């Protein structure tokens, strides 16, 4: 906007000067005014482009060139249209009118300057593409010199030819030095280079055209009128023009000569990108498989292989093959062939061996490949697989490629190692979480309150090891005189055990209510469990019915640890070794043949101790088990106390025996003291 | 840890687990028996004389084959158990479902 205003001001002053001269009237504006306004115009344009081009972060290199080209195009088109207009009108009075010529000239000049400043700003960005302190200083100096030259012109200081030449010469030297900075060219890819060449060529054309048109116009005007304000020799104009032209020509030549090598640079860049992809794949990819695929892809594209395969040894003797443009059969043929020829060091690292491999390859008939490059992939020092790249050309791999692919293979190994570590961490975390849930479920399945009666008192205790088992006990009042009891141990650990335990609880609560005989209870429980217990799983249990009216206990033992019973009358503790096999062991109706009910009568002072095998099998450091005898001892010693005390004493004896707090199985006990 | 020795005597496959069978090593026992069945043996003897301990998971392995063997008419006989190990079988009632005898001679006799 400011540019347009100053340009109009320039037009006005120039014309007024011309007008006054023509009318032989001394001009009412000072002679230096046009020069000053021209400088203002230049400065405003300069800031406009600084804002528009210099500060625009999104512009890439080709975009910059495109901007310059576009400005040039607009300037040239407008200039051509004016010329066309002139041609159509022919030599009328208007076209020879000095005012018209002057206006025309100024339009051209304005456009030319705009084009020059735009190029100048764009070139600045290109030169400073890779900055150094020294370069920035030089550039700043260059800009200030141009500013001084601008000031010099603005105030129509007396024209001194030698000074003019010195300044111009200095600026040209600076421009030449700065033009040596062509680093940006290297960052263009092949296509961008071609585009840039075209754009630069056109830019140069506009420059020369602009210069030509201004030159001719000035000549025409000077023919018409004397004392023209000739901006041509304006030192800033000349300097900028020179700089822009030099840099354009340099760029054009550098790009042109860079064309043949650009593919190498592109390849290097791609290698870096590929390398990054492999390193990052661990964070983004969900499986080892994708790491393998990326390794294969990147290696192939980096060394321009015609085919490739990645052989991964999996657990056991199976092998997984990822292939690229080669059938699995072909790959296996080559692997087998090489194995047959060279048993030791097959597909091993080292260029010598690789050379040998390629030689061996030629002995395989009917094969299209003539060179092979192979690398092992190591994870934690273990060879997990091999990467093989194939080419149809003989000696198709150079040392650089070997190095790069070896780096890829190493990086892929690290990625997979990281991946596995992460997987393990997640797995163990998941497992811990599962255990926590299982423990919680187990705890919640055990009753908070046990049945009480005038005839007996019950105390129970259950402690599970880190690996949750499935110990279960419960009580249920059936009627005023009958109470059902159960103790059970589910085989297996973890969530499945907790799950079966909850099934057992359901079975107990639904079947026990009906006050059925203990052996019938077991038969029905077995029938129900057949469908949910997996192969090899079973539940041992004892089911009791305490009849306080008859003072009698009826029970059935399904493979559970025998009942320990203390008869106070005989001061003797004995194990009831009755028949009965665990639930889930016989998976048909014949189970009824293997289970039966037993019964005993109780008297006041008798104690019944129920437990799971975690207690009798608790081992000390020597490997001795707590066993039945020690259990009987504890009961004999404490039979007179209340059940809570017996239980506490048993637990403390158990910990004392096994030594320390860590237990390796679930301890569960239920003690019934009859009154 | 467990090691399972395997040898054949006149068409009879004898498996001898050495050490302790717990939840993790029970898998090996399972594999060993499955392999014996897969090899086509119809007489399988389990020598338990070097078996120090067996957990419920280990018992579950023997249990899981009972029905399959009945259907296929495969005879499996266990022998040479220590008292402690025998007690474990007994408590669960597996002694009623499995053929458990004192020594190899008796075992061979039962296997036929």
Structure description:
The complex is a heterodimer of chains A (about 675) and B (about 110). By secondary structure, chain A is of the alpha+beta class. In chain A, about 55% of the residues lie in helices and about 15% in strands. Chain A has 19 helices and 14 strands. In chain A, the strands form three sheets. Chain A has a five-stranded antiparallel β-sheet with strand order 5-14-13-10-11. In chain A, helix 18 packs antiparallel against helix 19 (about 645-660). The longest helix of chain A is centred in the middle third of the chain and has 47 residues, at about 400-445. Chain B has four helices and six strands, in the order ββαββαβαβα. The longest helix of chain B has 17 residues, at about 55-70. Chain B is globular, with a radius of gyration of 13 Å. Chains A and B meet through loops of A and helix 2 and helix 3 of B.
Q: How would the global form of chain A be characterised? A: elongated
Largest interface, Cβ cutoff 8 Å:
A-B, 24 and 18 residues
Average pLDDT of chain A works out at 81
User: How many domain units of chain B?
Assistant: 1
Morphology call of chain B: globular
CATH superfamily of chain B: STAS domain
Helix content of chain A: 55-70%
CA-atom Rg of chain B in angstroms: 13 Å
Run of helices and strands of chain B:
EEHEEHEHEH
Q: Please count the beta strands of chain B (DSSP E, at least 2 residues each).
A: 6
Strand content of chain A: 5-15%
Number of strands of chain A: 14
Strand content of chain B: 25-35%
Q: What structural category arises from helix and sheet content of chain B?
A: alpha/beta
**Kindly, what is the distance between the CA atoms of the first and last residues of chain B, rounded to a whole number of angstroms?**
32 Å
What CATH calls the topology of chain B is Transcription Regulator spoIIAA
CATH class of chain B: Alpha Beta
Work out the helicity level of chain B: 40-55%
Quaternary state reads heterodimer
């Amino acid at each position: 906007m400011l540019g347009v205003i100053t340009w109009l001001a320039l037009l006005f002053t120039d014309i007024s000067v011309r007008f006054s001269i023509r009318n032989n009237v001394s001009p009412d504006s000072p002679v230096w005014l046009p020069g000053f306004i021209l400088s203002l115009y230049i400065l405003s344009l300069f800031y406009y482009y600084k804002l528009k081009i210099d500060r625009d972060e999104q512009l890439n290199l080709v975009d910059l060139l495109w901007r310059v080209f576009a400005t040039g195009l607009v300037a040239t088109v407008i200039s051509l249209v004016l010329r066309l207009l002139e041609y159509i009108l022919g030599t009328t009075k208007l076209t020879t009118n000095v005012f018209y010529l002057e206006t025309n000239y100024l339009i051209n000049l304005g456009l030319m300057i705009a084009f020059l400043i735009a190029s100048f700003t764009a070139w600045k960005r290109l030169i400073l593409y890779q900055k150094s302190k020294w370069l920035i200083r030089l550039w700043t100096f260059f800009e200030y010199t141009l500013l001084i030259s601008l000031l010099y012109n603005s105030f129509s200081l007396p024209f001194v030819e030698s000074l003019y030449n010195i300044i111009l010469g200095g600026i040209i030297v600076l421009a030449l030095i700065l033009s040596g900075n062509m680093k940006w060219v290297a960052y263009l890819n092949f296509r961008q280079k071609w585009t840039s060449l075209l754009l630069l060529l056109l830019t140069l054309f506009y420059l020369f055209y602009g210069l030509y048109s201004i030159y001719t116009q000035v000549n025409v005007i000077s023919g018409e009128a004397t004392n023209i304000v000739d901006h041509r020799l304006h030192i800033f104009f000349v300097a900028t023009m020179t700089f822009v032209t030099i840099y354009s020509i340099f760029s054009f030549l550098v790009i042109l000569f860079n064309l043949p090598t650009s593919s190498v640079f592109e390849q290097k860049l791609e290698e870096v990108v590929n390398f990054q992809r492999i390193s990052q794949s661990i964070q983004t990819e969900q499986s080892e498989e994708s790491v393998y695929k990326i390794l294969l892809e990147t290696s192939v594209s980096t060394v321009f292989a015609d085919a490739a395969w990645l052989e991964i040894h999996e657990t056991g003797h199976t092998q997984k093959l990822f292939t690229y443009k080669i059938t699995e059969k072909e790959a296996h043929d080559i692997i087998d062939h090489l194995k047959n020829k060279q048993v030791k060091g097959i597909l091993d690292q080292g260029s010598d061996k690789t050379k040998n491999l390629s030689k061996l390859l030629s002995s395989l008939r009917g094969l299209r490949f003539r060179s092979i490059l192979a690398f092992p992939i190591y994870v934690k020092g273990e060879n997990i697989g091999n990467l093989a790249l194939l080419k149809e050309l003989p000696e198709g791999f150079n040392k650089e490629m070997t190095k790069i692919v070896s780096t890829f293979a190493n990086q892929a190994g690290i990625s997979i190692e990281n991946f596995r570590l992460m997987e393990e961490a997640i797995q163990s975390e998941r497992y811990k979480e599962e255990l926590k849930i299982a423990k919680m479920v187990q705890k919640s399945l055990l009753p908070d309150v046990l049945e009480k009666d005038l005839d007996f008192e019950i105390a129970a205790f259950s402690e599970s090891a880190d690996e949750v088992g499935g110990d279960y006990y419960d009580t249920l009042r059936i009627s005023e005189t009958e109470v059902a009891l159960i103790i059970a141990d589910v085989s297996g650990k973890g969530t499945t055990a907790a799950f079966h335990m909850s099934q057992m609880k359901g079975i107990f609560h639904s079947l026990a209510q009906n006050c059925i005989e203990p052996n019938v209870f077991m038969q029905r429980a077995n029938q129900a469990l057949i469908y949910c217990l997996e192969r090899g799983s079973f539940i041992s249990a004892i089911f009791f019915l305490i009849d306080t009216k008859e003072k009698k206990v009826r029970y059935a033992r399904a493979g559970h640890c025998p009942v320990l019973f203390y008869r106070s009358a005989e001061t003797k503790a004995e194990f009831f070794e009755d028949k009965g096999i665990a639930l889930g062991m016989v998976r048909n109706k014949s189970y009824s043949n293997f289970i039966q009910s037993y019964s005993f009568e109780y008297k006041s002072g008798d104690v019944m101790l129920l437990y799971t095998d975690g207690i009798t099998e608790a081992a000390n450091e020597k490997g001795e088990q707590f066993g039945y005898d020690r259990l009987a001892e504890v009961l004999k010693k404490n039979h007179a106390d209340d059940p809570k005390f017996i239980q506490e004493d048993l637990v403390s004896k158990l910990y004392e025996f096994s030594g320390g707090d860590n237990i390796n199985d679930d301890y569960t006990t239920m003690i019934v003291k009859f009154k | 840890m467990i090691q399972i020795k395997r040898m054949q005597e006149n068409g009879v496959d004898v498996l001898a687990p050495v050490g302790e069978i717990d939840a993790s090593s029970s898998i090996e026992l399972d594999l060993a028996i499955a392999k014996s069945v897969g090899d086509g043996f119809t007489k399988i003897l389990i020598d338990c004389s070097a078996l120090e301990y067996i957990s419920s998971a280990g018992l579950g392995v023997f249990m899981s084959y009972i029905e399959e063997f009945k259907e296929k008419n495969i005879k499996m006989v266990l022998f040479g158990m220590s008292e402690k190990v025998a007690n474990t079988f007994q408590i669960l009632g597996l002694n009623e479902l499995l053929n458990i005898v004192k020594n190899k001679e008796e075992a061979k006799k039962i296997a036929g």
